[in-house]
Amino acid sequence: MAGLGQTLGRAATWPLTLAARAVDPPLRAWQRRTGTGGMAAVFLAPNLLIFSVFVLVPLVLNFAYSMTGGTGILLGQRPFVGAEQYARLLECQDYTRPITCREDQFWTAVGNTAQFVIFQVSLMVVVSLITALILNRDIRGRSFFRAVFFFPVLLSPVVVGLIWRWILQRQGLLNLIMVKLGLEPEVWLNDRVYAFAATIGVSTWAHMGFYTLILLAGLQAIPRDLYEAAEMDATPPGRVFWRITLPLLGPNLAVVLVLALIRGVQIFDEAYVLTGGGPGTSTLYLTQYIYESGFASLLREPGLAAAASILMGAVLVVLTLIQLWLSRRAEGRKAR
Amino acid sequence: MKFTKTALAALAVAGLGTMAAAQTEIRVMWYSDGVEGEVMQDLLSRFEEMHPDIHVVLDNVAYQVTQEQLPVLLESGQGPDIARVAGVLKSASEHWLDLRPYVADADYWDANFGNRYDWMRPDGSDKMPGFMTQLTLTGGFANKTLFDQAGVPLPGEGATWDDWIAASKAVMESQGLPAAFAIDRSGHRISGPNASYGANYIAADGMPAPVDDGTMDFVARLVDWTNEGLMLPEVWVSAAGTTYRAAADDFINAQIPFYYSGSWQVANLSTKIGDAFDWVATGSPCGTAGCSGLAGGAGLVAIKYTQHPEEVAMVMDYLASEPVLREFTERTLFLPAHNGVVAAGGLNFQSDDPNVPPALAKFVAASGETLPLADALPAWKWSNAYYGALVTRVSQVMAGEISLDEARTLMDQDIADQVAAAAQ
């Protein structure tokens, strides 16, 4: 039986072995000429090529589009207008009142996105942390609950949006339950506060499994002997949490915070399907504004959409730099 | 024996492959409001039987795809060979193929479809871009059963929007409904009513005119009705931007007694309502200037990036032929757009639903009441700029974000921005 297994294993890896043998001589020759530094370039090249085609080139193209005007799609058909699209987006008499801005919907979207990020990220971190703490305990059915909390992460955002839309709409599940309980039904998605809260709640529900997993990994990496020592000293549980768990979970929390921030700024699919940006523009977020300006409005303005996405990209770059800085600082502390 | 069987099978496969290779594939992008996708598939199957060298693939897509994705494809020189479009019929017209050199009988096309070419070609162009598969007219539908149950008579000829909303309100209150009426979330849909209140969108030079008192008159009513809880708020309020939302499902589910949409809903309502309740088409309620709906329709156009213009023209010739278009009209319950079919009359609409014939007759009668603005809009280049600004800003007023005066200023600004962007 073992012989059969080995034969099958060899058969499965045979093409790889053959390919490795084929590339071995030229790679050895290359290494002799360039040293190990040259080999790094060879191994990085395929990934760099894919990254260039799907990220760098579109990024450059997007920037080029942001410097053009008109309604055409092809870059060659679009006139160069310099920074006009940026000026249009940033032209404002009073930034706290979007209606005084030339592109009022852009500033409405900026304001909505900022509020969303503040509330959603706070909620996400707290809920993920609580869930991770519970799932880290020795409770009955722990594996089942871990799978349950992770399951929404596997769903398509459109499916998530639709499920919750069916729950929250006028003739939805929630109102059905309320009527059964003798309560007045509510048009949840037609109320500014409820709709905004719904986008926060639904996106937290959809993604918390991912962040819970990161925190759970962090919790499991905390040495058990620290807890045993605290137990021997009869340290109260609250003090254990604040003095042992939270400080040692710091690096994971920083990652969760920054990833959730980035994802929060990019919010689109679930919210778009759930509320369509309404009521009015109360859940119009930046990505929807970009999508509508560039693709979905009756007369498209790709230049304006590209400029808005560059500005959003700049915010994301800042957030990513913060993440890098926090990670390095955490690594530095660990090293000390 | 085994060898012979294998050899025959190989030959058969090779033969099929050769046949497939010899076939020209024509792709048609098609959206449906009702049953027309099934009817079109049936008609195309017959075409394929007559032309085994042409394989026509009907790609059924959502209406939104023809509005949002098709224009992007076209701008990059891609797209299907033929498409059925409505909202971008005029705005994307530079991408339509001029069929004149390819069709079998250009005079037949000009005689039967020529009067509406301007709806689907750039201003000043003389190309033959395609044909209207049907005409549409915006208009209302009333749930007669709900009106009867409430003991409220249906408003008669010449009834105004105020009359209709008052009657629908009485039905709503009597029957415990969530709202009295709904209008699809679309600038196109409220432009007929706007015209009825004296609106004019088109300046003397053909460019967009500033938003006028006529437009604001109906818009203000619509906002008031929404604030009073008479118009179903989910349709207009609970979305941002130019997102299209129809309220047909709310009418079909008997949640509203009055629904303003258009003639293309007849087959949809007939199919989905069945005998659940009686419904009637009402035409367009009146305003201060008239009782106008807005004409329009869907056009079948050939795309100029096709690699097979001759075969595309054969498909178009077949679908535009009088017997085929007559059958399409009778089976889809659409208003005919073929002048010969209209002139010949005697259409035998294929429906057992007793609500259908009077509904279609009502729309035909209402088509004589359209005002000049409503007749001009389908061929006007800037219609979409106006529609987009209307739907975006009116929704914001309904949601309490801006005032009517602010909306008026912002609509003028939005339209000016669109004109400026298109001029670059």
Please characterize this protein's 3D structure:
The complex is a heterodimer of chains A (336) and B (424). In chain A, 76% of the residues lie in helices and 0% in strands. Chain A is built from twelve helices and no strands. Chain A has helices at residues 2-66, 84-90, 104-135, 142-154, 157-168, 173-180, 192-221, 224-232, 237-265, 269-275, 286-296, 302-335. In chain A, helix 1 crosses helix 12. Chain A is globular, with a radius of gyration of 26 Å. Chain B is an alpha/beta fold. Chain B contains 18 helices and eight strands. Chain B has helices at residues 2-22, 36-50, 63-75, 106-113, 144-150, 161-175, 187-196, 213-227, 233-236, 248-252, 265-273, 309-320, 322-332, 339-344, 356-366, 372-376, 383-398, 404-423, and strands spanning 24-31, 54-61, 82-85, 130-143, 181-183, 258-262, 279-283, 295-302. Chain B starts with a helix and ends with a helix. Classes of the chains: A mainly alpha (336), B alpha/beta (424). At the A-B interface, helix 11 of A face helix 3, helix 17 and helix 18 of B.
Number of helices of chain B: 18
Q: Specify the CATH class of the largest domain in chain B.
A: Alpha Beta
CATH homologous group name of the largest domain in chain B = Periplasmic binding protein-like II
> Judging from the principal axes of the Cα atoms, what is the shape of chain B?
globular
Number of helices of chain A: 12
- One letter per element, helices H and strands E, the order of chain B comes to HEHEHEHEHHEHHHHEHEEHHHHHHH
- Total beta-strand segments of chain A: 0
User: What low-confidence regions of chain A span 5 or more consecutive residues with pLDDT below 50?
Assistant: none
Radius of gyration of chain A: 26 Å
| The number of domains of chain A | 2
Extended strand count of chain B:
8
Strand percentage of chain B, roughly?
5-15%
